[in-house]
Amino acid sequence: MRKLIVVLCLLMLPGVAFGATVSKETQSCLNCHRGFTPGIVADWENSLHSKTLPDEAIEKPKAGRRISAETVPDRFKHVVVGCYECHGQHTDKHKDNFTHFGFSINVVVSPNDCNTCHPTEVAQYTPSKKAQAVGNLLKNPVYHTLVDTIIGPQEVDGTTITHQQPSDYTKQDACFACHGTTIEVLGMKERKTPLGTIQVPDLKNWPNQGVGRINPDGTKGACTSCHPRHSFSIEIARKPETCGQCHLEPDVPAYNVYKASKHGNIYEVDKDHWDFKAVPWRIGTDFTAPTCAVCHVSELAAPDGGILVERSHDFASRLWVRLFGLIYTHPQPKNGDTSIIKNADGLPLPTTFTGKPASEYLIGPDEQAVRKNRMTTVCKQCHSTSWVDAHFAKMDNTIKETDHMTLQATKLLQYAWDHGLAKGIPQGANPFDEAIEQKWIKQWLFYGNTARYASAMTGAQDYVAFKYGWWGLTTNLEKMREEIEMKEAIKKLEESSADKTEQGSAE
Amino acid sequence: MRKLIVVLCLLMLPGVAFGATVSKETQSCLNCHRGFTPGIVADWENSLHSKTLPDEAIEKPKAGRRISAETVPDRFKHVVVGCYECHGQHTDKHKDNFTHFGFSINVVVSPNDCNTCHPTEVAQYTPSKKAQAVGNLLKNPVYHTLVDTIIGPQEVDGTTITHQQPSDYTKQDACFACHGTTIEVLGMKERKTPLGTIQVPDLKNWPNQGVGRINPDGTKGACTSCHPRHSFSIEIARKPETCGQCHLEPDVPAYNVYKASKHGNIYEVDKDHWDFKAVPWRIGTDFTAPTCAVCHVSELAAPDGGILVERSHDFASRLWVRLFGLIYTHPQPKNGDTSIIKNADGLPLPTTFTGKPASEYLIGPDEQAVRKNRMTTVCKQCHSTSWVDAHFAKMDNTIKETDHMTLQATKLLQYAWDHGLAKGIPQGANPFDEAIEQKWIKQWLFYGNTARYASAMTGAQDYVAFKYGWWGLTTNLEKMREEIEMKEAIKKLEESSADKTEQGSAE
Amino acid sequence: MRKLIVVLCLLMLPGVAFGATVSKETQSCLNCHRGFTPGIVADWENSLHSKTLPDEAIEKPKAGRRISAETVPDRFKHVVVGCYECHGQHTDKHKDNFTHFGFSINVVVSPNDCNTCHPTEVAQYTPSKKAQAVGNLLKNPVYHTLVDTIIGPQEVDGTTITHQQPSDYTKQDACFACHGTTIEVLGMKERKTPLGTIQVPDLKNWPNQGVGRINPDGTKGACTSCHPRHSFSIEIARKPETCGQCHLEPDVPAYNVYKASKHGNIYEVDKDHWDFKAVPWRIGTDFTAPTCAVCHVSELAAPDGGILVERSHDFASRLWVRLFGLIYTHPQPKNGDTSIIKNADGLPLPTTFTGKPASEYLIGPDEQAVRKNRMTTVCKQCHSTSWVDAHFAKMDNTIKETDHMTLQATKLLQYAWDHGLAKGIPQGANPFDEAIEQKWIKQWLFYGNTARYASAMTGAQDYVAFKYGWWGLTTNLEKMREEIEMKEAIKKLEESSADKTEQGSAE
Question: Which of these, B42, B47, B51, B48, lies nearest to B22 by C-alpha position?
């Protein structure tokens, strides 16, 4: 079969034509790639893109439209959205552009390319925290130090551990697999193929589908994080397993908590009866319990089709408080670029070490009320106002108490630093590289976050109680205390022993 | 649309009639709530309740009946089971009763309300451990202390940690989310609605669907734990994800263990071909591997429909040994109210600290044999007697050995208490608040339980071996030993140092 | 109904005949077992075995054949594959053979029995690591010591812990549940049945479906590990939950990592639209993302049916490097029997303590290239060559760095041994039974393995970063260092105190 493909490709004959509305460039792509990468072609053939003419899609009623552009350039209007329509756009802006069997092609499709048909989504996404996820980690020296401490290889000499800079590969494999990498074009490289030696771009930090990926055209984000290539399925994006790739225990256990909640329980046992492709998405008719997308992203409608909540690809648009402690919870930041935040101590953090919020950079009560109202509108389609109010009152209390437990851990850490039992901020040393410091990280990053996420998605009680939640908060505090106690006792004994030795010498 | 609902509601016009057999009260509920809480109405419309006339349901053959009443009051006979039929019962007994647009309504539907149609299930459930789950935790001073120690906020001062009482909200969020809360009616509160200001009951410890919830009518239990509102689906109750909300790692990892077992494996890959709604439920025809409900609750039939095992909503009716160590395994308690148990040392525990069972309160060998026979009857539909016998012989050995490992940990803890390395029962101090005590808790609550649950559902070998099982039992013991050794060494050094200082002073 | 079965069985009447092509022996089995073990009969009735005549199956085109024999003995040709066809073979070789109501029956069906129809699969499987899984654990004194240390019951006396030999039951329940047990026939035992007292074999270490089970006919392996009785479904074997029974966190978290990866995400949300029974299995048509079987076992075809990759039941045939560290990664062993391996220090391990591979026993670069090419052929059906190359370059780096992190932990352990802080290899003591040694085990067995598995199945970033991955590698190293530091400080104080006491005595 390979031989046939080669002949077909070399002759640039039409091959198996997909349909009358496929552009001739895309048809050329399909001719070869149907043989070389059949999985990609099959995914695309199963997608809406392969069946949709933009000029017809635009004519649909607004509530059911998947295309948000009011018009598209002429060349896209009457052909389905094929290989070349996406990979052949804005070629002058793409450093990853190259000539591939006569076609000018970009390796990476960026949000700016998707923007041709989906400008509303791109406009909502681009300023959001997700799109800024690389800079929010790298431009913040505190977070950057944490990254380097944890994923950098270490060198042991005797009982001394020296931390080295993490490699680009490990960054790509760990933190930046979710946050996104900065894709760099190093040049061109040769590759031998059945069609002869070809030249392809040599990309660094690729492949990557992190939410804040910095693309070779300078744009930020990867729509494929949630709408994976090449089916771009709304069903996949709406199912919680997609979110679960990044939002996992122990640091951001939203997906684990969801699965253990009543909502997750109903999703899991009832989902086969739901319609994950319907737009608009009707409560009680198309689905009977929320998924991540229902609460945070999707356009929702009543059973009669009337729109109840608007879609937004700014994932914070229905969030008023940031449950993710850094190190304490705080109102959502005003700007998706959180690297600009400075707390009262001048550190790039949304709160001080004792919990004072950097309010100037965070949304105020009015905006909080607007966003909370968006979320509770979703809740109230299935729950009474009393129920919803009581739920969030409980969550507010859990926020307060878990932040309190972080403060207590911080007091113990400060005691260790102050009494020479560890070296951190007061000593100008790395605050993340010693055992007691790493226990402290667990207090807010694993245990506090878990209890709060589980409270927010009520029903995941084991995550509040025993799995990373209160059991962790309480026993971790006691572990920190005991470590301090033992180290302090040893230190005093050493000092006393040194005194006596000195006295002995002096005598 | 909201405006239309308001007009419709105010005029109390019939609106979209659901069907001729809906009571006129329920029709009034639907008129408004179809607009205000469409998710609830849709769930109910998808339910059997919305399609079932009790007097017709009672006529069905016994094996296939879902209603266990032999007769129901006249007013329920000829209408489907709608909003008012459930929320409008026994209004004089409900402290949460209120007048809502002219109707006398209870917020919470209790087992006593479900009892009208489902008396057998309520009679089985009410005396069981599940229905007593609140008192079993709160009335037992030992367990109560454990709860308070783990989920109460703490205060750090220097290196001293002071434990405070947990808040009602955190209790509701953690332990009592599963066990159930005591719902209290604080009074009435005002709520602004599109239909004007209304009065609704102000409930404390609500919402909650814990299995032992104490309801405003004084009854115990929440049928909605497993049959969630408002679909009350038998399919949901029969699927293990429902049980998995509470029976999760690390303390009662039945669901995690099930998923990793061969039975769970077959369920997960084959369930789409099963019929989860069939009553009776036929082995091999309707399902091909057990779920939690198959082994513990459901009425099971042969492929030809002959009943093999009777349904019971007393979840211990097929259980002879309690794998859940407190701190050791023991025969199932005679009474669902376990707070009455006293061991030989006078403590409210089913065994002593060294493992002697409080036999007076526990079922004897004859009743154990009866219950074991019920369970093995299920097993033997797919496994030979030799297979089943060997399986439970293996489990018995795992019970014996894990209890032995708990005893070893208890000996180490006792050593620490006896040698002044921790303060617990001998000192009249909290036995749960120090690091070594918390390691001891893990021995029986996390590691022993996990190994036993995994042994009981054979095939979940990683839970026996590495995930919370034997790896935990063994390495935790060594951690306890090392902690004792280091603390003892420091103590001796301190004593020796104090001696020398005294000697020095004395000289 | 039971009574009817008894009568039917005693009379040996035909009962409910299954079909004209059932052998008369199998029909006799069905007559009784349809009543006694209806689940088994139903599973078989749903299976292909109950519908397949070997002589017809053999005639199918090669790519779609499930039977690999070119011919079968006459007595199997014209009857479906029923009870007696499998349990009645090679009776002279089976120590578990017995006479059961007049029929000569084996309890256990072994690979040699399956070999009649599936010789290619048995020939591939038998020499593989999986089939040798019992000996690979038991014949290796290092691994054997680890097993004994972790799952043997322990005895505490004061602060001394004594390790005892694990029981056969616990071995069967833990490690050997996956690896397989050695089934022994102890003799015959009596069993009372409704048909009178019968004699059945008394088997030790049974039931068991471990991959390397040693059967009563001397053969190795249990096909039922992945093709569970009595449906023997290809759908079950192809779904990852089956592999997940053994390949679970924390030691070999392949299944957990898969679920968190993009491939696992797509499987989970899209699998209902796939055809898990199609042979050959067409990429993009029958499935749209890989499962474990796709990458490691199955025959794969292009959408047009052309075979791309051959099936192999040697699960290492597409693997060139062994990610599972013992204690470091290494090329796959040449021989499935790894107990023959000796490293440069004479230990039965594939690498030395400092990482030097025992190359003589491991595949070389040429064979590695062949196997890697098989795997990348799978990848390239959906990914470009550049993508695939970059993916494996990243994995290679993660292998290198995690092995480096294991080496650092090994250096710390060696320091502890050398400075009298723990007793291990230099002292001729158990290297697995002390707290610091058990931390060292976690470094390579839990953390290193997890980071590598997650890197290999890109997209499971939380397992690389926080869940058992780098967070574990880094913080565990720091815990080891701190433990050494504290123990060393205490040791010095004790020595100094002893010196002074001596001096005091001397004075």
Answer: B51
pLDDT level of residue A500 (50, 70, 90 thresholds):
confident
Q: Which amino acid is at C446?
A: F
What pLDDT sits at residue B20? 61
Tokens of C32: 């009784």
Q: Give the pLDDT of residue A20.
A: 61
Q: What residues contact A121, with CB distance under 8 A and at least 6 apart?
A: A68, A114, A223, A313
What is the rounded average pLDDT of the residues A104-127? 98
Decide if A177 and C381 are in contact by the 8 Å CB cutoff: no
Cα nearest neighbour of A236 on chain C: C269
**How far apart (Å, rounded) are the C-alpha atoms in residues B465 and C176?**
10
CA distance B205 to chain A (A): 9
Which segment of A192-201, A393-402, C110-119, C470-479 scores lowest on mean pLDDT?
Answer: A192-201
The Cα of A297 is separated from the nearest Cα of chain C by a number of Å equal to 18
Cα–Cα distance for residue pair A55/C349, rounded to 1 Å: 66
Could you read off the pLDDT of C112-124 as tens digits, one per residue? 999 999 999 999 9
CB B219 within 8 A of CB B111: yes
Instruction: Tell me what the mean pLDDT of segment C387-391 comes to.
Output: 97
CATH 1.20.850.10 domain extents, chain B? 233-320+363-382
Q: How many CB atoms lie within 10 A of CB A164?
A: 12
Burial of C139 (0-12, 13-18, 19+ CB in 10 A): middle
A251-274 residue pLDDT tens:
999 999 999 999 999 999 999 999
ipTM score assigned to the predicted complex: 0.95
C-chain residues near A251 (CB < 8 A) = 462, 465-466
Residue A91 contacts by C-beta under 8 Å, 6 or more apart in sequence? A97, A104, A105, A106
* Alpha carbons C437 and C443: distance in angstroms, whole number: 10
Superfamily of domain B233-320+363-382: Hydroxylamine Oxidoreductase; Chain A, domain 2 (1.20.850.10)
Chain A residues in contact with B234 (beta carbon < 8 A)? none
> Amino acid identity of C494?
E
Cβ atoms C205, C181 nearer than 8 A: yes
For domain C237-493, the CATH superfamily is Hydroxylamine Oxidoreductase; Chain A, domain 2 (1.20.850.10)
Looking up tokens 């959205």 gives A81
Cβ within 8 Å, pair C489-A486: no
Residues 19-38 of B with CB under 8 A from A: 34-38
Positions in chain B whose pLDDT score sits under 50: 1, 12-16
The rounded distance, in Å, linking the Cα atoms of C62 and B212 is: 60
Pull the structure tokens for residue C376.
């990348």
The tens digit of pLDDT for each residue in B229-265 reads 999 999 999 999 999 999 999 999 999 999 999 999 9
**Nearest to B144, CA basis, from B432, B466, B456, B455:** B432
Locate A444 and state its tokens. Answer: 């807010």
Write out pLDDT tens, residues A281-324.
999 999 999 999 999 999 999 988 899 999 999 999 999 999 99
Q: Over pLDDT 70: what percentage of chain A?
A: 95
| A-B C-beta contacts closer than 8 Å | 193
**Tokens 């302090």 -> residue:** A488
Q: Is there a contact between C303 and A38 if contact means CB atoms under 8 Å apart?
A: yes
Q: Do B154 and A477 touch (CB under 8 A)?
A: yes
Q: How high is the pLDDT of residue C6?
A: 54
B235 touches chain A (CB under 8 A): yes
Strand locations in A299-362 (E): 300-301, 307-309, 321-322, 330-331
**What whole-number distance in Å separates Cα of residue B15 and Cα of residue B24?**
11
Against chain B, the chains showing at least 3 CB pairs within 8 Å are: A, C
Phi, psi of C347 (to 5 degrees): -90, 150
Q: Write out the residue limits of the CATH 1.20.850.10 domain(s) in chain C.
A: 237-493
